[in-house]
Amino acid sequence: MRFTKMQGLGNDYVYVDCFTEQVDDPLRLAIAISDRHFGVGSDGLILVMPSTEAADVRMRMFNADGSEAQMCGNGVRCVAKYAYDHGHAAANPMRVETAAGIKTIELQLGPDGKVATATVDMGKPVLEPENIPILIRQARAVDVTIKTASRALQMTCVSMGNPHAVFFVDDVASVPLAQLGPEIEHHPVFPERVNAHFVQVHSPAEVTIRTWERGSGITLACGTGASAVCVAGVQTHRTARKILAHLPGGDLRLEWRASDEHVLMTGPAAEVFTGDWPGKTE
Q1: Which helix (H) or strand (E) holds 168?
Q2: Domains of the chain
Q3: pLDDT digit string (tens) for 59-105?
Q4: Which of left, alpha, beta for 143 (phi over 0: left; psi -120 to 50: alpha)?
Q5: Is 18 a catalytic residue?
Q6: Which of these is catalytic: 18, 72, 78, 230?
Q7: Whole-model pTM?
Q8: What SS3 class is residue 96?
Q9: Nearest partner of 201 among 158, 244, 163, judged by Cα
Q10: Which of 18, 78, 157, 222 is catalytic?
């Protein structure tokens, strides 16, 4: 089975072109191929597929633990790059079908005619707790308190097609992410688990983010998470609607557009290498 390793800000996935390849057991493949010692090494597996709806291409994504996720902001940029660069779709903007709905992506080409960066219309954030989902009785999950095994924290929760909990802190570098990440991800208040993001605000237009992704652990970047941070910053009056987000893997530009409440995310997408994996699913 032929695969391609791609990354957006170091948020790396193994991509399989299902226009030409067949994956019978993506859950099992995701676990095996994502292993950084015995596999290719990645944050998960993404399948690039023909669309079953009125889109140019379809994306299915699986975390490193085999669980299927609804959306990945960095991953969907790479899907659009792969589809354009490899001739599966020529539309610009491109429409990509995901489990969180169809996303429209504007492609910016480099001097070589290939996609270098992309702007994703992430759609409207989901703010109702029951739809995020989070088990609280308030109308909005803004600056609410959560008690983990080790401490109490204030969080703001947003869904960008997948659930996110955002924690604003004074010093993001000092956060024990490897300890707090699992405590938050598996907290009973989140029936579908959650992605956790710790954020230091430098100014209304600039933040630094560290992320724990459900099913993958610490990652260098999370596009849906950065989008959720943009929304949470506005909700809590900490940031403006346009921000520059610094992540361990690089920078993203976000805007929670006032005109239609859509979040726009701009960042790079890169192809790293291609290879052959023995068999179709293992």
Answers
A1: strand 163-168
A2: 2-121+268-276 (3.10.310.10), 129-261 (3.10.310.10)
A3: 999 999 999 999 999 999 999 999 999 999 999 999 999 999 999 99
A4: left
A5: no
A6: 72
A7: 0.91
A8: strand
A9: 244
A10: 222
The DSSP output letter for 259 is T
Task: Give the dihedral of Cα atoms 137, 101, 162, 243; nearest 10 deg.
Answer: -100
Contacts with 267 (C-beta within 8 Å, 6 or more apart), sequence order: 8, 9, 73, 74, 77, 117, 118, 221, 223, 250, 251, 252, 253
| Alpha-carbon torsion angle 82, 253, 128, 171, nearest 10 | 120
Q: pLDDT digits over 197-233, tens only?
A: 999 999 999 999 999 999 999 999 999 999 999 999 9
CA dihedral sign, ordered 90, 120, 16, 40: positive
Residue among 214, 206, 211 at smallest CA distance from 246: 206
